[in-house]
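Reading is simple: each integer encodes one residue's backbone shape. The lines below illustrate:
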Amino acid sequence: MARLILHRLGGLLVTLLLSSMVIFGSLYLAPGSPENVLFGNRAPSAATRAAVRHQLHLDQPLPVRYWDWLTGALHGDLGRSMVTGQPVAERVGAGLTTTLLLVAMATVLIALLGLGLGTLAALRPGPVDAGVSVATSVSVTVPPFVASTVLISVFAVRLGWFPASGTEPGFLGSLHSLVLPACALALIACGFLARVTRDALREQLVREHVQTAEARGLARWPLLRRHVFRNALPPVITAMGLLTAGLLAGTLVVESAFAVPGIGQLTIQSVAQKDFPVVQAVALLLVAAFVICNAATDLIQALIDPRLRAAGRNT
């Protein structure tokens, strides 16, 4: 198990390093010069432009700039915003709590509804299974921005149960304000996880050893717990890990629709303003979240399946 953890940790670090190179290089190699963000519509003199480029270290070779940025990031210094002049860590950190709370709420909804509907469909063939299949087929086709619009129109404007935009003060106020964004963020993932859960459970239910145990009179719940649910966990955990990793990217749309002050809305604003340091930090954060979720998924599966632990010892 320790070797598996070290292997996954090494892969995580290599992935983050390569991703940081791509993120840093792609932004600074894009058309346009970063200092134009500061000048706007003004036409500075050559001396002024040179002084600004020197202050932003843009007159240095790209590898030197990358190394300075990387070593600073390892010490918690992600640079300063080119728009506000604030430290990037402060700008990102200000909205990170809200985004993490939104993602946590969406994850809970995905787990409850996705696992619940998938289990119900697998154990209740016939009308129940058909109804769940129709519901999940609809949910996976609804984009987050469409779901956001419908939820705002129905539950915020017409019924007035939730705020249409922004967040209310306090922890409970934030929870109340993020209910609709979390639902919009979780809708597609719920349908996808329900399908994966249903198929995984159905595959185990028709296995010969399960049918033999049922024919011998083994009680329903012990049969499901020992021989069905446990063996169906690997694909479900994989799907859950991938869906959770993708939630941070989904906040870009949902937070903009609901005007939630998180890193999703910050990313949209930073891209529009060409605030490269902030975009770099958020992009690296999204990659890190995706890689960490995948690594955590592998470790959880190794804890459940002894064969994966044995494979990790042999690598």
Q: What stands out?
A: The chain is about 80% helix and 0% strand. The chain has a mean pLDDT of 78. Residues 89-314 form a domain with the MetI-like fold fold (CATH 1.10.3720.10).
